[in-house]
Design brief:
Elements lengths: L25 E5 L2 E4 L5 H10 L1 E6 L3 H17 L4 E7 L5 E8 L3 H4 L7 H10 L5 E11 L7 E4 L14 E6 L10 E3 L11 E3 L3 E3 L1 H4 L3 E5 L6 E5 L4 E3 L8 E10 L7 H8 L9
Parallel strand pairs: 1-12, 2-3
Antiparallel strand pairs: 3-13, 4-5, 5-6, 6-15, 7-14, 8-13, 8-15, 9-12, 9-14, 10-11
């Protein structure tokens, strides 16, 4: 597991975070799904390569989901080192946790299911038979009423990994994820566009004008359902203004033996504030 593959941008906990335009998230339909991880076969691989994503109805059991939520609750209560908070506060004045980040072996040591046999088998299929190498784990906790947006972006824009080594993202719902509480939304086949310029605006993100009004695919999931997605697939999650939390765990797998690149090379591809274009 490589700890230094993604930039450590400062957490966006400041009160100046801007709300997003509702038109940035306009799903035309919900994603098709397959029943379980056992259904990640050659046909599913074909869908994944064509569309850039693959949704699974049930990947974790209810016990596995609860065990993962228990870890999140314990770490949030005890002040985990890799914790980030929402800019807004609940009515009680208590800070709302938005993210827990894990490095190295921390996720395993905390008891998270990063070595789930069925999951690793499915990821290997999506990597074309290459052995999966987990290099990032995060718990994404979008609290009721105050959960902030994660703007449209491509995950490979964050990773100092050669573009020839495509990464598989795994987003697992721990609550019911709906359009109302901020489920994942993706641009179908958007990975075919290649790298898109990113900017430091509400986050490290694709410019709003590049996605405004485009029809997305929403990925509503029951607890234990998951989304696999290509590291060049544009995706985002709107703010959670609903009374229901939307908690998830996200993993990223690279093929074993993948190649690192300098940060300067990544930014030359995905952009920086020095590009001769505006957003």
């Amino acid at each position: 597991m490589n700890e230094g593959r993604h930039p450590h941008h400062p957490p966006l906990n400041d009160p100046g975070c801007e709300p997003h335009e509702p038109e940035l998230y306009s799903p035309a339909r919900a994603a098709e799904t397959i029943p379980t991880l056992e259904d990640v076969n050659d046909q599913a691989l074909g869908f994944y390569r064509t569309h850039g994503y693959l949704a699974v109805d049930q990947a974790l059991t209810s016990d596995e989901v609860q065990a993962t939520l228990d870890v999140a609750q314990e770490l949030s209560a005890n002040g985990w080192d890799g914790i980030s908070y929402e800019a807004n506060k609940r009515d009680s004045g208590k800070k709302a946790v938005r993210k827990l980040a894990f490095f190295g072996e921390e996720a395993r040591e905390c008891g998270l299911l990063v070595d789930h046999t069925g999951l690793l088998k499915a990821v290997k299929v999506l990597l074309g038979g290459k052995v999966p190498d987990l290099f990032q784990t995060m718990m994404l906790l979008k609290p009721a009423h105050v959960g902030r947006e994660k703007p449209w972006h491509q995950d490979h824009a964050y990773f100092d990994v050669d573009l020839r080594d495509r990464i598989v993202g795994v987003w697992i719902a721990l609550d019911e994820a709906t359009v109302e509480n901020g489920c994942m939304q993706v641009l179908d086949r958007g990975h075919e566009l290649g790298p898109i310029l990113h900017w430091r605006r509400r986050d490290w993100q694709i410019c709003d004008s590049d996605v405004m009004g485009k029809k997305s695919v929403s990925v509503p999931l029951k607890p234990g359902g998951l989304l696999f997605f290509d590291s060049l697939l544009p995706h985002g999650t709107p703010s959670n203004n609903s009374p229901y939390p939307r908690r998830a765990i996200q993993l990223h797998f690279a093929p074993a033996g993948s190649r690192d690149v300098p940060e300067s090379q990544r930014l030359a591809i995905f952009g920086s504030e020095g590009k001769n274009v505006t957003c």
